[in-house]
Amino acid sequence: MPLEKLRALKFQPFVSGLLVAINVIVFFVGTYDKGSIYDAGMLKAFEVLEQREYDRIIWSLFLHNDISHLFNNMFLLFFMGAMIEKEIGHVRFGILYFLSGIGGNIVSLIIKVIKSNFSASLGASGAIFGLDGVLLAMVLFSEKKMENVTPVRVLLMIAYSLYSGFTGRNIDNAAHVGGLFTGFVLAAVMCGIGRLRRKGDQL
């Protein structure tokens, strides 16, 4: 296979596309089986902390309330995810996505316990906000510049997303903020390590 084709395959957003496909499949399967997947996977503080069903922290990232909730998250995941995945690679992107979602859900659980709020949460929004944080860290700290992506534009996008969340109803804003913070910190560390490695190679 020619080198150009190998490079083209390397930069295809495989992970982003796969995540979207899995979310869509889970949504329709969950709708068909009348909610049993949702009952077993939604993020619930009592089940996670008392019954030690820690897998809910991950499975809830693949569940969505309705088709609108699914579409909004998957639209952002694919287009923003594809852009980030192209810059940092498939493995790093996948790791940052899941760690952001996990971080967001952990923050959500903490806030639920503090407020004695034992309602259920679900959705990929925490991980999506994590991608916002990753993008912000990249434009601030990465030596590679992304075309048409500036700190101001990313900050405006984040501010609008947070505003929409805090002014909406039945939205787990703790997961959003937790995911955003987790993604930003992890990506900032990633950029810092990359800089150190490049400096070490130059010595």
Commentary on this structure:
With 203 residues, the chain is mainly alpha-helical. 75% of the residues lie in helices and 0% in strands. The chain has helices spanning 3-10, 14-32, 36-41, 45-49, 56-59, 67-88, 90-114, 125-141, 151-167, 173-202. α6 crosses α7 and α6 (67-88) runs parallel beside α8 (125-141).
- Shape estimate: globular
Distance between the termini: 36 Å
Count the beta strands: 0
Mean pLDDT: 90
SSE inventory with pairings:
Elements: H1 3-10, H2 14-32, H3 36-41, H4 45-49, H5 56-59, H6 67-88, H7 90-114, H8 125-141, H9 151-167, H10 173-202
Helix pairs in contact: 2-6, 6-7, 6-8, 7-8, 7-10, 8-9, 8-10
Task: Write out key terms for the chains shown.
10 helices; 0% strand; mainly alpha; 75% helix; 203 residues
Describe the structure concisely for a colleague.
With 203 residues, the chain is an all-alpha fold. It is built from ten helices and no strands.
